[in-house]
Amino acid sequence: MPKKRLLLVRHGKTEWNGLSRFQGKSDVPLNDEGKCQAELLAARLEAWQPDALFSSPLSRARETAETLASRNPGISPVLLEELSEIGFGSWEGRSIHEIESADPESFRRWKDSPFDYPPPGGESFASVESRVRSALGEILSKSGERIVVVSHGGILRAMLALLLDLPLRPVWKMKIANCSVTGIDVGRKGTSLAFLNDDLHARMSGAEPEKLLFPV
After folding, report:
1. Among 68, 41, 34, which Cα is nearest to 53's?
2. In whole angstroms, what is the distance from residue 106 CA to residue 120 CA?
């Protein structure tokens, strides 16, 4: 396989992110801050010249991907249902504080090992793993060396675990901020982490994000 770099992008911020609510499959759009984050990343991404762009169809990810494509006219988002966020069952729409107060034992188990202890009615890791593997197969079969994937915190962590052959618990503790970028290199010699949770563009004020290059 020719060497590819995947840029794994978490969607921009939503109102529910600001309220610490579980989103999961709920289709929550970007808020104004999230839209601004996506614009800043789009400007930065323009210099990188991606060959392909894949996205979850949920609006917060799709809107982020569409903004990225607007500054990179050679690509358009390919929507993959498999990239949708993990389903959080009865916890969706409820805040972390609310869940922790109402059901502290279930919340403690989930926080310690969320892939082993999904919320009531939530999606199992076997289901997540199956669809993430399917999405990766399609993404990596795409021609081109520079590929952007826009998805969600839970799915991107699952993707890191599968690509890098890492245990699930420590991967869940990795911070992946809204509109951050994580770089993965995939090639004949295997897969490696190039960088994690780069959100410098989202922290810039009055600067020119297009001049901020990604780590090599």
Report:
1. 68
2. 9
Q: Which of 56, 49, 45 is nearest to 74 (CA)?
A: 49
**129, 159 Cβ separation under 8 angstroms:** no
**143-172, pLDDT tens digit by residue?**
899 999 999 999 999 999 999 999 988 999
Contacts (Cβ under 8 Å, ≥6 apart) of 140: 1, 4, 186
Among residues 89, 121, 95, 118, the alpha carbon closest in space to that of 106 is found at: 118
Residues 102 and 22: beta-carbon distance below 8 Å: no
Token pair for 153: 């915190």
Q: Residue 189: CB partners within 8 Å, gap ≥ 6?
A: none
* Eight-class DSSP state of 114: T
Contact by Cβ (8 Å): 53, 75: yes
Q: Which two tokens stand for residue 86?
A: 């993990």
Order of strands across the sheet that contains 78-79: 78-79, 52-55, 146-151, 4-10, 181-187, 190-198
Pick the closest to residue 56 from 30, 77, 80, 27 (CA basis). Answer: 80
Residue with the two structure tokens 């059901």: 103
Residue 14's DSSP bridge partners are 30
* Residues forming the active site: 11, 152
Q: Is the pTM of this model over 0.90?
A: yes
Closest by Cα among 135, 143, 147, 138 to 52: 147
